[in-house]
Amino acid sequence: NAFSYCKSLKQVSIPTSVTIIGCNSFSFCSSLIEITIPSSVVYIGDYAFADCTMLKQVTIQSPESKFEIRKSAFCRCTSLTQATIPSSSIINEGNIFNECPNLNDINVLPSENERINVVDGTFLLYKSEDEFDTLIWAKSDITEVSIPDYVKTIGNYSFYKCQSLKRITVP
Predict the structure, then answer these.
(1) Contact 37/13 with Cβ under 8 angstroms?
(2) Could you tell me the pTM of the whole model?
């Protein structure tokens, strides 16, 4: 909760000496617009940037080692439109972008140990064991979806506020 409810905070520069962004660190910083997380950071805690309602862009630079993002790290960032995350990210306990209805562009930075993959710019898949089998995010403006047959799990909030979605096909 280090900077929670700093409602006038617009910009944050995180130095490379920082390795952990704890739970709720910047939650409810409703004026924060953009955040770049340096490669030195290896852990982002639960709800770290939750309810940053003016946050439009998140860039997580490729980490120097194992990188973990905890549940709902960016939940309810209602202005978020673009996110860049490393493919080696370990995502624990659910969707990191739940309740972000305007997020329609996720870029995944390549890495050696890929755990995240974007399919056709529409789905974000997580690799649970040996295969990308967990759907954890879908673009909010999709109108129809065909779930790939290799998907075994659809995570909480994966299709949250996909208000134009008219048809779903599950194999």
Answers:
(1) no
(2) 0.88
